[in-house]
Amino acid sequence: MKRRYSVFLANVGSCFDRYCPAYGRAYSVNELLDRIEAIDGLDGVDLVAVPEVMDAAATLQREIGTRNLETVSVATDIFTKEIWKRGSFSSTDVSVRRAAVDHAKEVMDLTDSLGSDLLTIWPGQDGHDYLFQSDYIQARQWFMESVAELCDYKPQMTVGLEYKLKEPRTHSMVSTVGTTILMAQGTGRDNCKVILDYGHALMGYENVAESVAILKQFGDRLCHVHINDNYRLWDDDMIVGSIRTHEFLEFLFWLDRTGYDGWLTIDQFPYREDGQQAVEESVKWLRYLESRLETDAAGEIEGVIARHDSVQSSRLMRALIGGRR
Predict the structure, then answer these.
(1) Contacting residues for 46 by C-beta, under 8 A, at least 6 apart
(2) Residues 65-97: tens digit of each pLDDT
(3) What is the distance between the alpha carbons of residues 64 and 263, in angstroms, rounded to a whole number?
(4) Are 225 and 255 within 8 A, CB to CB?
């Protein structure tokens, strides 16, 4: 299955972290879109509704289409401002919860206007840091009620929950594939689904291919994929395939096996690399890895899985990356 690739707008520019406020120069929206357009294999762009993006809505509506790109998703910004520091949809302050819902509805309107039908929710500030800090039941109830309201606001739109084990909170509320499926089910809305970030799943010590299978088995909830790489210790957001090469092969196989036909959005933070070059390298890795699963590879993989033989699976892995049996 030929995949369609996208990238977050800012990922082809310059990044910053808590140590260095600027690893490179700032880029305008038009410059970032130009850099995306120049990468062979990218057909889409994902956005985060930070103030700069919201202010540039008219420009984005005009410029994305002129470059033959699609807007894949827009993510809420419920993690960069002080108001969210103790949570957004799960805040104990009803006015904060209302502000989060109102902001998300505004983002849904923007998403609609850009021709996308996917709202991304990464609730980075919803969780806890200390023991005896959170009412785990009530907080989840508030969260699910807020998300259900969003699902009802635009029933034709998918509301995707992106999970991550930790950061910036020490314990995220939407944390693992299992808890996120339960949260989506708890909304009682079929258009509430799950976004799988490859690096987040790795950091949570998940077998990401198995996570894909679980999402298929329990409600067919997978709606979008963010793609990057890391060493499992942290959300390093590195070039795709540069670290977990074999695991990517199994992951891509299970995307095909479960019939996932959505986008793969490159979500990485090339701090010291040129952002455009790093994203282009991820596209090339994805194309190479997917090429290793073409022709008769799927049938051979199915046979190895059926035999449940670890030696056979090891031989298969060598063959898939071009080695000899």
Answers:
(1) 6, 7, 8, 9, 71, 72, 73, 74, 75, 120, 265, 267
(2) 899 999 999 999 999 999 999 999 999 999 999
(3) 17
(4) yes
pLDDT value of position 82: 97
In terms of phi and psi (left: phi > 0; alpha: psi -120 to 50; beta: otherwise), the region of 9 is: alpha
- What is the DSSP code string of 102-128? HHHHHHHHHHHHTT--EEEE--TT-EE
Task: Count the neighbouring beta carbons within 10 Å of the beta carbon of residue 252.
Answer: 24
Give SS3 for 166. coil
- Enumerate the β-bridge partners of residue 48: 75
Reported as a pLDDT band with limits 50, 70 and 90, residue 297 is confident
What domains lie within the chain, and their CATH numbers? 4-294 (3.20.20.150), 296-325 (no CATH)
Pairing, β 118-121 against β 158-162: parallel
Choose among 207, 277, 279: nearest CA to 249. Answer: 207
For residues 119 and 74, the answer to whether their CB atoms sit within 8 Å is: yes
Q: Identify any residues that bridge with 159 across adjacent strands, giving them in sequence order.
A: 119, 192
- pLDDT of 121 reads 98
